[in-house]
Amino acid sequence: MLLSLTLFLWRLYRHFSIMFSSERLTVPEYVSRLQRGRSGSGSEPKAVSPGVRADVQLVLDGALPALRCAIQRLKSSHETSDSDETRRAIAELFQLVEEAWVLPTVGRQVAEDICNRIRLDGGLELLLQLQQNPALEITYESAKLLEQILTSENRDYVARMGLGVVLNLTRHQEDAQLARSVSGILEHMFKHTEETSVHLISNGALDALLFWCRGTDPTVLRHCAVALANCAMYGGHRCQRWMIEKQAAEWLFPLAFSKEDEIIRFHACLAVTVLAANREIEKEVVKSGTLELVEPFIASLDPDDFARSLLDSSDNMQGRTAADLQHFLPLLDGTRLEGKCIAAFYLCVEASIKSRQGNTKIFQEIGAVQSLKKMVMYSSNGTACGLAKRALSVMGEEVPRRILSCVPNWKTCEVRTWLQQVGFSAYCDRFQELQVDGDLLLNITDQELCHDLGMTAGLSRKRFLRDLCVLKTYANYSTCDPNNMADWLVEVDPRFRQYTYGLVQSGVDRNNFKSLTDQQLQNDCHIDNGVHRAKILSANNKPLKPCQTDAQPAGPDVFISYRRTTGSQLASLLKVHLQVRGYSVFIDVEKLEAGKFEDKLIQSVQRARNFILVLSSNALDKCMGDTDMKDWVHKVGSFQFFCIV
């Protein structure tokens, strides 16, 4: 036992001592022996199993005998009710799995094979039985191992055979040690299927996660943040609606507002961004206030530093699979800036991880490269555009030039540049010959493409018109749209911005818009989609929003401020507790320095009916001896605004 502990501590020391050296990661002793043998031992190579890489098979040959032995010991000790031997067998299995996950390059394949062997040899079934063991230590340790082995196939097994066991564990919400593992198990199970997520939420799993969001344990909070992100990404619209009903967007605020763990903040931001991409619940998500934290947070991160933090975690160091990464594409191609920023950032991070593994071709296979190129070409947001450029560079892809947004004013040379960047270089000369400028490009039809420009292939014309639709959506119409019809169309549906030029060219403005007919929208404004015309006419018949006046808008019920970062978590939790009870709350997100706050902040306090100041340790140091009341707390406290402090 002492020898085993000494060996484990030595391995742990080695792991951290060379984390950033050329060796990068400590590898298990059996792998080191195999690598030494491979490099110069002269031993005969063994046969490789079909579909398994030679280097993966080499590691498995060293690991599987110990794995089988540990599983057999676990079975025997369970039959004889030997608790000590059961715990030793679980610990040995955990060490084998943990060492596999941190292997460089081949870690994912080796770990997944080991985890699947545990299931095939009956170990997973036994672990589920041990969750119901009266000995708490065995429950804790078997749950910890279960969390580590939930590969795709093992999630299938648990969903079919052990979901009730997992749900029983979630009912012990007050058990802090068990929460560390159960929250991790839920993190994996919310990736399984929509049906599994529905079953989990229906039986209290989401309630447990939201309860744990109120705690301070960073391990539990990290699992909760990732689990909520997985629930939003993989659970479908039904689960997203339930998340809103259970006020998950509000409870994500303390996680996204956290100052201590960037991985927690990132996944909380990812969860709320995915929820906001669902237009049915978008307004409720925006109302929570959590979405406002996303873009500034992403802009503050460095993708390489974030990738290193993932590589230092055995849970994340292998990166995501192709199937996982595909779930980021709807955000990348969506209409919300927060979604574009967070998706571009994460693809940049994954590109860094995959480049170390020599697997950057995965991004071309899932279609991410084209989406990133479109973002570089069209996006006016510096954060999103910069991240997309960086991701493409790390992937080894060509970075396109940004397209000038004032498309109606384009000359023929700008049309030519756009054609080259969207893959229609073969038609550049014909477009040039016919002097196609920005105005003609925005008005071009399928028939003109075929007969005038020689684009005879129907699929080529469809692809061209699809790219043209994207261009119309991103174009800047300010020079020809004095009534800002573009923004009104976006309020109806962000996709409808493509119809701006047709409306403006037909003489439509805010004054005559209400008299438009379906026939006019089709024939004069060239909106061929009947459903789109119906939506526009329906929105047109709604009463206009009241105009903004100089009168100040009603203030929040509560203004919350905090003096030090140590008070940020309490401030954010207060915000959520008040919001879920129906109060409107403003929290000062930016750190305030004495005497340097903006007038609008004072105005916010003035309009608020209640002012809450979170005082953590030493928070009032600057007020000591401040007889002139220059510190902002003294100034706020001296206001006669009938504000309850």
Automatic annotation (TrEMBL):
One Gene Ontology cellular component annotation held by this UniProt entry: dendrite
Catalytic activity: NAD(+) = cyclic ADP-beta-D-ribose + nicotinamide + H(+); NAD(+) + H2O = ADP-D-ribose + nicotinamide + H(+); NADP(+) + H2O = ADP-D-ribose 2'-phosphate + nicotinamide + H(+)
Any one GO BP annotation for this protein: signal transduction
Domain TIR, residue spans: 554-645
Name of the protein this chain belongs to: NAD(+) hydrolase SARM1
Limits of the SAM domain: 410-474
Cellular compartments annotated: Cytoplasm
Enzyme class: hydrolase
Record family assignment: Belongs to the SARM1 family.
InterPro entries: ARM-like, ARM-type_fold, SAM, SAM/pointed_sf, SARM1, TIR_dom, Toll_tir_struct_dom_sf
Signal peptide: 1-17
CDD domains hit by this protein: SAM_SARM1-like_repeat1, SAM_SARM1-like_repeat2, SARM1_N
E.C. number(s) listed in UniProt: 3.2.2.6
Pfam families for this protein: SAM_1, SAM_2, TIR_2
GO MF annotation: an example: NAD+ nucleosidase activity
Keywords: Cytoplasm, Hydrolase, Immunity, Innate immunity, NAD, Repeat, Signal
Source species, domain of life: Eukaryota
